[in-house]
Amino acid sequence: MNAPIADSAVTRRHPPLDSDAFDALLARLTSELAAGAAHYDRTAEFPHANLARLHEFDLLSLTVPASLGGAGASLPQALKVVRAVARGEPSTALVLVMQYLFHHRLQGNPDWPVELRERVAREAVRDGALINSLRVEPELGTPARGGLPSTIAKRSADGWIIDGSKLYSTGSPGLTWLAVWARSDETPPRVGVWLVHRDTPGVRVGSEWNHLGMRATGSHELVFDNVFVSAAHAVDVHPPGEPGAGLDALGFAWMSVLLSAVYDSVARAARDWFAQWAAERTPGNLGAPLASLPAFQQTLGRIDALLFSNRVLLDASAHTERVTLDEASLVKYTVTNQAIEAVQLAVEASGNPGLSRDNALERHYRDVLCARIHTPQNDSVLQGAGRSGFAAFVRA
């Protein structure tokens, strides 16, 4: 185990979060990350270098409390960073979102031993150590749809033995800590999180992530074969149905805002590509840029209207931090669907150049479509909202 770092040894390497210097830093990082985005999309390599760059400026520990060396960032501050990173390279931003969400809630979780949660936080500050929750399984699918995990934690003499597998383990090549959702072999079983270090024997990659978009997230299947976990690392373990590892309303609001911001930022990068292309493209039979045509002006206006709506909604949701569960779902639904529509408009107007792999727009289109796969999916959001809407009019 690495020795803990004393609070007095922590030095901040970035300017204050709300300052012109910090905004300039983020703008520079956006440009740097954008320069390598096509490479990571083409190769599906995990963006280790991008994450190391973020660690140089303490951005991987942004939501770690200040008392443990982090920045103790608010949701608006985290949103600002996610927007900047996602506009450059969205796969890096998605890994960052998972880091922010976990550390935002970690220190307030009484079911974790204090020493363990502080160790995870301090390693994020010192080493840039990443953590994520691993919940989806091949047979179960997304746990948001119900059911118990097939991953089993069996009692051993001095801890637990974990067997099972998890799909879509975002960031897996770079994670230090794996928060594995499993059930015990007890009768009745308990369900919750067993914290596994990535270097533990028996942890291996199964099928590799090979998707249409967000290709550099490293969301591989992770297989756990006779993996030992100490007794102290069984955290957030409860009987089914009792409060535990699930998100509370505030945590769900953070997730909806930050996840949505990734795809809104993809749409903004697509918008910029389209605007520049139309301003520079001058067909010989026109003798003027496409941007001079009313149809192209209207298309860009429609795109900007959608993105304006997204910005207002995200900013409002981030600053209130008191969004209900139903409203948080609607934030995600509205922002991501408007982001997809914005990119589709740019693709439709640009024609073949927009779908050419020589241009960035087709990459942005593939990336923004991945917004649909995140929990909660559109059908669940709309059904839940409709059920709540009817509740006031339906007699018991």
TrEMBL record:
InterPro entries membership: Acyl-CoA_Oxase/DH_mid-dom, Acyl-CoA_Oxase/DH_mid-dom_sf, AcylCo_DH-like_C, AcylCo_DH/oxidase_C, AcylCoA_DH/ox_N, AcylCoA_DH/ox_N_sf, AcylCoA_DH/oxidase_NM_dom_sf, Mito_Isobutyryl-CoADH
GO molecular function: oxidoreductase activity
Signal peptide: none
Domain Acyl-CoA dehydrogenase/oxidase C-terminal: 257-373
Domain Acyl-CoA oxidase/dehydrogenase middle: 137-227
Keyword field contains Flavoprotein: yes
Oxidoreductase as UniProt keyword: yes
A Pfam family: Acyl-CoA_dh_M
EC number from the UniProt entry: 1.3.99.-
Domain Acyl-CoA dehydrogenase/oxidase N-terminal residues, every copy: 30-99
Cofactor: FAD
Stored Gene3D superfamilies: Acyl-CoA dehydrogenase/oxidase, N-terminal domain, Butyryl-CoA Dehydrogenase, subunit A, domain 2, Butyryl-CoA Dehydrogenase, subunit A, domain 3
Sorted UniProt keywords: FAD, Flavoprotein, Oxidoreductase
Record family assignment: Belongs to the acyl-CoA dehydrogenase family.
Protein name: Acyl-CoA dehydrogenase YdbM
The organism of origin for this protein: Paraburkholderia nemoris
